[in-house]
Amino acid sequence: MITIDRVSKTKSRTRILYDVSFEARPGRVTGFLGPNGAGKTSTLRILLGLDRPQSGTALICGRPYRKLDRPLTTVGALLDGSGAHRARTARAHLRWVAASNGLPDRRADEVLEVVGLTSDARKRAGQFSLGMSRRLGLATALLGDPEVLVLDEPVNGLDPAGMRWIREFLKDSAAEGRTVLLSSHLMGELAEIADDVIVIDKGRVVIQGGLADVTGGHRTLEDAFLALTAAEEGGSW
Amino acid sequence: MVSLVRAELRKLLGLPTAWIGLVLGTLTAPVIVLLNAPYTRRAIAAGTLTDTTDLGLRDLGIGLIGPMILGVIVVSSEYTSTGPDAPGARQLTTTLTAVPSRRRLLAAKTTALILVVAAQAAVTAAATLTLTQVLHGEHAPTPAPARVAAAILYWTLTALLAYAITLITRNGIVPLTLLIINSSVVSVSYLLTKVTDLAAYLPDIAGAQMFIRSADVPVEIAPLTAGLVMTAWVVALLAVGAVLFHRRDV
């Protein structure tokens, strides 16, 4: 369960989030949709305790991220890039992350297998392609077998096979009762997997609800999204 | 906390740059003792080097490049870009999602750094002083254990100083360049002692007096005071670095 309650954030004197509130529930895939620069990543960074909001709260299972003990066993997060130092091998990266949360070394090999990187375990992260980096990032998120997944633009850089794989993976995760929150600026992608959708634009949530509710009278989620985010500027993004 | 320290040790020792620091730092002092051996022998024979109490120990003042590299990269590796695909992405994001408490993370990092540098300093001191005994046995008095311990402390505090500065700058290149130049090419600290007596209380100048007796300084500081002066510098800079680390967004 993820609860974001009236989160506001100002960065370099520019307001980037205005009272953002939403929930992501267990057993469902929640899509966080918006154009680039709308505030998706900023919201997720606050949720993960990386950045601080000026006001409001972001809770995971009722607690702020910074108060979680061994957080990887509760939340798996994927942000930009692989998150691994370029000089480290995939396995070495996963092993230190595992150690920091008291997880055994064998978890590193297990998650490498899940994301299909077993044969690249000894390669340095700096030599990884964009798609492999995303897989390594996802492997890191899965180390603690978490009940909550927070993924920022997870399909970016993946090939079609990788996209299909992650779609199935996230659907299965939700079916197992996990809370899945993923951001995307690709409406088509979200329309295929999201149960609930939150649309954010210029730092404000413009609509949220079940996929069908958000799509509303529009033919597709894309139409609804364009209508909602283009209201002010004629869709100039 | 033990698992956090173990993770930080793995992280540090998994970096190729850390091994450059370990090898360079450990070999420099013994190699210099070897290279200087003929000169030192002649100087003792000619009577120009009468005070031999610092033999070996003085060489431990060199090789500090090791602890400096280690202290800097413990922090700077967190801020290095993970690659051209995601220029803003850094390992620090992974670190803080794994260990969200800044206080515990810094405690673990500090402990890991102290363990590695103290071990390196102990090995280097043993190698350097043994070599000095072998080469100049009859002239080099066996150094008191307290002075050897002080030399190990000096190395450790130097690493912590580099670490604290990098916590403030969040970039390794500037502090590493300045620290290495200051400790090898041109010692700005030393030049400052020619301008003002206060420079004797700079961390590197004061700290060296913990274990080197005949230092060329304007103000002689007793070993214990010297240790306290350097520790005060380290604590002050670490406090600033820790507060900034706590307050900043990643």
Automatic annotation (TrEMBL), chain A:
GO terms, molecular function: ATP binding
Domain of life: Bacteria
Pfam families registered for this protein in UniProt: ABC_tran
Keywords, comma-separated and alphabetical: ATP-binding, Nucleotide-binding, Transport
TM helices/strands, residue ranges: none
Keyword Transport: yes
Domain ABC transporter, first and last residues per copy: 2-227
Family note: Belongs to the ABC transporter superfamily.
Name the record gives this protein: ATP-binding cassette domain-containing protein
Species, as recorded: Micromonospora parastrephiae
From TrEMBL, chain B:
Top-level lineage group: Bacteria
Keyword Membrane listed: yes
UniProt keyword list: Membrane, Transmembrane, Transmembrane helix
Regions that span the bilayer: 12-35, 112-136, 148-166, 173-192, 221-245
Name of the protein: ABC transporter permease
Lineage: Bacteria, Bacillati, Actinomycetota, Actinomycetes, Micromonosporales
